[in-house]
Write a structure and sequence with these properties.
Blueprint lengths: L1 H32 L6 E8 L10 E4 L2 E13 L2 E9 L11 E6 L6 E5 L13 E2 L1 E3 L4 H30 L3 H8 L1 H29 L2 H37 L1
Length: 249
């Protein structure tokens, strides 16, 4: 009987010890999340819609967790007040013109507060000061925009498929050009005729140059071109001579 009583006491003691240890660990974790063991200062911000933000969510500054959301309260039908507890050690970096926005871990992740960096000229923020807020973009609005884009892409893909199907069937101008061999041969004949016409025009121009009545015109044109080339050569030579004279001086 004494042995059983002794074992019961040992088990009871272990159970109580484990319970106390778990309680202390829970208090430590909660206190760390709530910044109960660190000196903090308070900031506030007003939002029209907090988009699922909850008490206890993190506050980030420059991508680092610096505090937690302490309280959320409704002021009126268009304003929600968010109280924030920020660690005192980052007070020196938060300026009075910093802005507050609401971010999220992905599209459907947890919400958190983001404090943007302020300007170098602004003074430090004061305790319990209200910062300007930037309204968050609703996830539903993003999803609706993505849905519209996907719908438009599906419509365009369907239209392209119909156009390609018509082309493969030989419908339309492009389809007939690709599928109809007669039109293709006619197009080839047209290109050959154009090539012959171009060649004939070149030959006529060469013949016109040797024509008695047009020979003077082409000779004048040739002399004018030669004069322009010669003037350019003379100008370049004069420039070179001028450079050489300056060097010899």
């Amino acid at each position: 009987m004494d042995t059983q009583t002794h074992k019961f006491k040992i088990r009871l003691g272990l159970f109580v010890s484990i319970g106390i240890a778990l309680f202390v660990i829970a208090i430590f974790i909660i206190g760390k999340q709530k910044n109960m063991f660190n000196p903090v200062f308070k900031l506030t911000a007003h939002f029209y819609n907090i988009s699922g933000l909850q008490v206890g969510n993190n506050i980030r500054f420059s991508g680092i967790n610096v505090g937690t959301v302490d309280n959320i309260s409704i002021i009126n039908d268009s304003t929600v007040k968010v109280d924030m507890l920020v660690r005192k050690e980052v007070h020196q970096f938060i300026k009075s013109d910093c802005q507050v926005s609401i971010g999220s871990e992905g599209l459907i992740g947890d919400r958190f507060i983001v404090i943007t960096q302020g300007s170098a000229q602004a003074g430090l923020v004061k305790d319990d000061q209200r910062l300007e807020s930037v309204e968050p973009i609703e996830t539903d609005a993003i999803m609706a925009s993505v849905q519209i884009t996907a719908t438009n892409a599906a419509i365009i893909s369907q239209q392209l498929a119909e156009i390609l199907h018509k082309i493969n069937k030989g419908k339309g101008t492009i389809g007939r050009l690709i599928q109809d061999s007669n039109i293709a041969r006619s197009f080839n004949h047209t290109m050959v005729n154009l090539e012959k016409s171009s060649k004939g025009l070149t030959e006529n121009m060469e013949a016109a140059k040797h024509n008695f009545f047009l020979r003077g015109f082409y000779n004048k044109k040739k002399k004018a071109e030669e004069k322009v080339i010669q003037d350019a050569i003379n100008k370049k030579a004069a420039t070179l001579d001028s450079i050489k004279k300056k060097k010899t001086r």
